[in-house]
Design a protein that fits this description.
The protein is mainly alpha-helical. It is 29% helix and 0% strand. It starts with 18 loop residues before the first helix and ends with a helix.
Amino acid sequence: TPTPAKSCTECHTTLPAGVLHGAHATTQACSACHTPHAPLANLTATCATCHGTQVQEVTQNGGDPLGCTTCHSFTSTESPASGGALHTTHTITQGLACNVCHGTHGSGVRPIDQCATCHASQTQEIVQGGGDPKACGACHDFAGTASLAPDGLLHTTHVGAQSLACNACHSGHGAAPGPETKCATCHATQAQTVTSGAHATKGCTDCHDFLATTPPPPTLCTQCHAAPTNGLLHTAHATTQALACTSCHGPHAPGANLAGTCATCHAAEVQTLASGDHKTKTCTDCHDFLATTPQPANLCTQCHAAPADALLHTTHATTQTIECTICHGPHAPRAGLGTNCGTCHAGVAQSLAAGDHKSKKCANCHNFLAAQAPANLCTQCHGFPTDEVHDEHVVDQGRPCSTCHKNPHSPTQNLGTVCANCHSKRIV
């Protein structure tokens, strides 16, 4: 008596996890596709039993009637309709049948050849723009599972963070992608600055790489511009202090308003400049960044002629060859003038601060623009004393104040000790 045949599932308790295998196994017996003694032999030869029409199409189109698994994977756990984001959109979201894009079995039709069936207007734009109507895959990746947007930092910022549509930057189908021609739509100020500045011949993407995954490097400028090596101040800022180019130069018009950026680091100096005698000047009027030597000692006299008949000024500037900035602040030349005399005249300044004239400033008595010292300087503030002692000495004898008041900065200091200079016999 023959032994009864066992069911396949008595040995094969776990069925393959493939999506297509599961679809067949739930409706068909194992033997519909598998021969019992060699279950994997000539497996695709049995497809024609149920799919005769499709196999006939393959044969008529010159294809391999046994090559079903080239497209239909029985072991894949994913649906044939899934995969790339765009593929899923067409097959699942829009419910399109496979042959809408792929043609009949064995036809060799490429999906890219079928795009015009639904996307006629876009294909026409491509043809009118001189493009390839079958180059859809250059931008539209059906197999890609990620967004169409490249992962460049700037591209992600526009597409992801700002949610801009592709055509906000890119031209329509058929025209060469030209995002920088549309930058001015959102960046009008920057675009206008570029066209009127030193970078007028440059395009946005010459500096802004949309596909770069990191911010522009600090050395970006030097890819086109060699750093000046002979400018003393420029080298001090760019090399010694390692400042980025954009700390001073505007990227879109590098030479425009160059001095206007100085206040970023030199706020106090700029504020002094704006409120002083030099408020009509800019930093670069005096500070030459490309000069190879320090500022010359005669820089001030290039604009200001030294007073020729001023006794004290001439004594300091010409006779003693003191530089202008020793007394004058460069950013506000007359601000605080007379308060820094102690730099050279420390003893005198100390005596002034401790004596009767401590409320006075040097310039109250020392007129740097006067041609000579006035004879009656003291009486301009003190008047003329009318007591007997002053009458005798000043009126009768015609002695100047300094005969007795030896220290003009502290007039009553040691006043009684100078009498012996003239009255030694009386004192003895």
